[in-house]
Design brief:
The complex is a heterotrimer of chains A (about 250), B (about 240) and C (about 300).
Chain A (H helix, E strand, L loop, with lengths): L10 E2 L31 E5 L7 E7 L2 E12 L11 E8 L16 H10 L10 E11 L4 H16 L8 E8 L2 E4 L3 H6 L2 E8 L4 E8 L4 H34 L1
Parallel strand pairs in A: 5-6
Antiparallel strand pairs in A: 2-3, 3-4, 4-6, 7-8, 7-9, 9-10
Chain B lengths: L16 E5 L7 E7 L2 E12 L11 E7 L7 H17 L8 E11 L4 H16 L7 E8 L5 E3 L3 H6 L2 E8 L12 E2 L2 E2 L6 E5 L4 H30 L8
Parallel strand pairs in B: 4-5
Antiparallel strand pairs in B: 1-2, 2-3, 3-5, 6-7, 6-8, 8-11, 9-10
Helix pairs in contact in B: 1-2
Chain C lengths: L9 H13 L1 H10 L15 E5 L7 E7 L2 E12 L10 E7 L16 H15 L9 E3 L3 E13 L4 H15 L1 E2 L2 E3 L5 E3 L19 E2 L6 E9 L2 E4 L3 H6 L3 E7 L4 E5 L9 H31 L1
Parallel strand pairs in C: 4-6
Antiparallel strand pairs in C: 1-2, 2-3, 3-6, 5-6, 7-10, 8-9, 11-12, 11-13, 13-14
Helix pairs in contact in C: 1-2
Classes of the chains: A alpha+beta (about 250), B alpha+beta (about 240), C alpha+beta (about 300).
InterPro entries (chain C): ExoRNase_PH_dom1 (IPR001247), ExoRNase_PH_dom2 (IPR015847), ExoRNase_PH_dom2_sf (IPR036345), Exosome_comp_Rrp42_subfam (IPR050590), PNPase/RNase_PH_dom_sf (IPR027408), Ribosomal_Su5_D2-typ_SF (IPR020568), Rrp43 (IPR033196)
Family (chain C): Belongs to the RNase PH family.
GO cellular component, one term (chain C): nuclear exosome (RNase complex)
Chain lengths: ~250, ~240, ~300
């Protein structure tokens, strides 16, 4: 009945620890656990207007990576912000405690909020909402690999749902380098074994890149190859997002 | 059926009540309320200008800060703050001083059971001391249920832990009115039988709950008599200190 | 601006939204006079509710509950802890409620919602004091290892009646929970048995517990009502909650015992008759929710 002592016992998860990374992939080809080809993305499930309380929202599933994004605004800026004749964008990405296999590891990705901001600010026409702020909040429900690209794509879908003016939809895809293989849209197991990664955020119809993030050691021809792969996948993803938005509009008209 | 209580009280007997007001110099209103060994100190500052951003500027708003005796502020303290805030908002006349904030700070001096009711009584006495306009006073009582279904009033901490269930009830105080009897009844029940706040812990049957409500009414009548006497005796010769 | 009469032309219609924003209390009271609410529900009816089990694949038990637009996602993750010395054969349940900024325009990343810790405490009080979960079932080896169940409830969309939806999703997640099969390895650590390990492959202890479900002693359901003058409205939306401030939350268990009656102040006083009415409404709602939960559980078992 009365509250017990407030001491929090330390706990550990009983799942088996990560498998050791196998020998460097010099000669052996990587086999994708879910049976995809190296240049094949996961099937995507997209839905807009997932959250009723927000001006615009979207829910996206890429395999096991599930993300929900809400957009609020344009709404009044905080009193502390000075007058500005362009709008402001405010982004925040957070993880649920059950998103990662071990509870509570989502706080390792604090830089995703600023990366999301940089990816989106090039595409939004800020002059259309002076003095106000658009808030983009993302919640990763389950992370199955390639989180940030999925968050960016979902955020641009939510912005379109909210009616914020943009130059184009923003799509993002990442490529992992495992030995000599380039695999697109990696899952979390592949990401943990990768030697390097490349993420591109682009505006597919205008063929412009808003953000490029490269980690690891890459040779120039490899970078070109990876970029080709990404841009191709981005334009396909752009088509899928567009058809999802058109469907949502036609459903709401009925 | 007689229950043996460790301190020798009967089932319906409350612990000795004591209330002293105007004990803090700087606060606009203050009170110290003790029920047996549970002691809570309340201080009221206000009305101060301005309200917080999300509040309605057409009404006064109340802010509550709860300071536990030891330890950091956690979820239990936030819950107490919310309950107190809502309770005090329902007894204050909020339209008299719009766009102001009155802040009530509670400090737990000792916790020996029945903490939230003691705090509500202290806050109410402090509001009276500060001269904040109130519709009526709030009188709080703790009732607990033993396994056999009998009601024990004002349990101490040891007793609370052994009980099946206990609840905190807050009623408006009883009214001494010059108007005839029938005017203050709503649906055949006197006004002071209405519940302002009810918080329960533990499982009980619905009949037990209603039974506790009746006992609570009787006890609240006694507490409101005590409150009336103690407020009247100190009311004379005390100038108001509201800024 | 007088109350806009029944003039049926475009001007009259445009005024309705403005009237709703400028005079919300009068707007709702006009509806209450006709015993109806703005979304065409009668006063005692709750919104449409659904429960889906197994929403999060990586958690040991999970459920998503929707009441109207209010959406809650609950997930349970099991971790191992050493039990305390006062109760060496009992596990522990830690309940937390989060309101991330996506759920409501009033929650910002730096400014958490005021109601979130209160609802978290209410949930954990209701679940622990009702004895829904037998903590002795969560024990592995007496004195050495026991399960700690972390239940996290996330609000994905806040539209009133948050506690009801949170409790529904928590209860559904517990009924979906499967405790994994574990054994103790050589270092004394508890490890889950994965499917590739055959039986008795090494000198491990034999499996301590096989994969099993938790037995729930009773199931809790709740209903939040609003009291306004003489009316009692069941299952309020966020707009109704902000306009009429007196809420009563009644939690009943499956054998109709009262687990909690929570009324945190509010301008309207509740008399015994109002309390009885709220409890009767909650009894009715318990039957509805019981049916919905049983259907969701049987859907899961068919798969």
């Amino acid at each position: 009945m009365a509250g017990k002592a407030a001491s929090v016992p330390s706990t550990y998860s009983p799942s088996p620890t990560q498998k050791k990374k196998p020998t460097i992939f010099k000669d052996v080809d990587w086999v994708r656990p879910d049976g995809r080809g190296f240049h094949q993305c996961r099937p995507a499930f997209l839905r807009t207007s997932a959250v009723n309380a927000a001006s615009g929202s979207a829910y996206v599933e890429f395999g096991n990576t599930k993300v929900i994004v809400s957009v609020f605004g344009p709404r009044e800026s905080k009193k502390a912000m000075l007058y500005s004749d362009v709008g402001r964008l405010n982004c925040n990405v957070s993880y649920t405690t059950f998103a990662t296999p071990i509870r509570g590891q989502g706080s390792d990705h604090k830089e995703f909020s600023s990366m999301l901001h940089k990816a989106l600010e090039g595409a939004i026409i800020l002059e259309t909402f002076p003095k106000t702020t658009v808030d983009v909040f993302a919640l990763v429900l389950e992370c199955g690999g390639s989180d940030l690209p999925v968050v960016i794509s979902c955020a641009s879908l939510a912005l379109a749902d909210a009616g914020i003016m943009m130059y184009d939809l923003v799509t993002a895809v990442s490529v992992s380098c495992l030995g000599k293989n380039l695999v697109i849209d990696p899952i979390s197991e592949e990401e943990s074994f990768q030697d390097g990664s490349l993420m591109i955020t682009c505006l597919p119809s205008r063929n412009e890149v808003t953000q490029l993030t490269l980690t690891g050691e890459w040779s120039t021809p490899k970078i070109h190859e990876a970029m080709e792969l990404c841009l191709d996948a981005c334009s396909k993803l752009g088509e899928i997002m567009r058809s999802c938005l058109k469907e949502a509009v036609s459903i709401s008209k009925e | 059926m007689e229950i043996d209580r460790p301190d020798g009280r009967t089932q319906n007997q409350l612990r000795p009540l004591a209330c002293s007001r105007n004990i803090l110099n700087r606060a606009h209103g203050s009170a110290r309320w003790s029920q047996g060994d549970t002691i809570v100190l309340a201080a009221v500052y206000g009305p101060k200008a301005g309200t917080k951003k999300n509040e309605n500027p057409e009404k006064a708003s109340i802010e509550v800060i709860w300071k536990p005796k030891t330890g950091q502020v956690g979820k239990a303290e936030k819950e107490y703050e919310l309950i107190l805030r809502r309770t005090l908002q329902s007894i204050c006349v909020l339209t008299i001083n719009p766009n102001t904030t009155t802040s009530v700070t509670l400090q737990v001096v000792n916790d020996d059971g029945s903490l939230l009711p003691c705090a509500i009584n202290a806050a109410c006495a402090a509001l009276v001391d500060a001269g904040i306009p109130l519709k009526h006073l709030a009188v709080a009582i703790c009732c607990s249920l033993t396994g056999s279904g009998s009601v024990v009033l004002d349990p101490s901490k040891l007793e609370e832990q052994k009980m099946e269930a206990f609840m905190y009830l807050v009623f408006p105080n009883s009214v001494h009115s010059v108007l005839p009897e029938g005017s203050l009844h709503v649906d055949g029940e006197p006004m002071e039988h209405g519940i302002i706040t009810s918080v329960t812990h533990g499982v009980m049957s619905v009949d037990d709950y209603l039974h506790c409500l009746e006992r609570g009414h009787a006890a609240s009548a006694r507490i409101s008599d005590f409150l009336r006497r103690s407020l009247q005796s100190q009311a004379l010769g005390n100038p108001s200190k509201a800024a | 601006m007088g109350s806009s009469g029944a003039s049926g032309n475009l001007e009259g219609e445009m005024e309705v939204d403005a009237f709703r924003r400028l005079f919300p209390l009068r707007f709702h009271e006009r509806h209450l006079l006709e015993s109806i609410r703005p979304d065409a529900r009668p006063l005692e009816r709750a919104r449409e509710s659904t429960v889906a089990l197994g929403a999060v694949a990586s958690a040991d038990g999970s459920a998503m509950a929707k009441i109207g637009h209010t959406t809650m996602l609950a997930a349970i993750k099991m971790e191992v802890m050493t039990p305390s010395s006062e109760s060496p054969d009992e596990g522990c349940v830690a309940i937390d409620f989060h309101m991330p900024p996506i759920c409501s325009p009033f929650v910002r990343p730096g400014r958490p919602a005021e109601v979130a810790p209160v609802i978290a405490k209410q949930l954990s009080d209701a679940i622990t004091s009702s004895g829904m979960i037998n903590l002795k079932e969560l024990s592995l080896t007496t004195g050495k290892a026991a399960w700690m169940a972390y239940l996290d409830v996330y609000c994905l969309d806040a539209d009133g009646a948050l506690f009801d939806a949170a409790l529904l999703s928590a209860v559904a997640a517990f009924s979906h929970l499967q405790i994994p099969a574990v054994s103790i390895n050589e270092d004394g650590r508890v490890v889950t048995m994965s499917r590739e390990d055959g039986d008795g492959k090494l000198a491990n202890d034999p499996v301590i517990k096989e994969r099993r479900k938790l037995t729930l002693n009773c199931i809790l359901f709740s209903l939040t009502c609003i009291l306004h003058k003489k009316y009692i409205l069941a299952d309020p939306t966020a707009e109704e909650e902000s306009v009429m401030e007196t809420h009563v939350t009644v939690v009943l268990d499956s054998s109709s015992r009262l687990v909690s009656l929570y009324k945190p102040g509010g301008p309207v006083l509740a008399y015994a008759s109002a309390v009885q009415d709220c409890i009767a409404l909650t009894r009715h709602r318990v039957k509805e929710l019981q049916k919905i939960l049983n259907e969701a559980i049987s859907d899961m078992e068919v798969d």
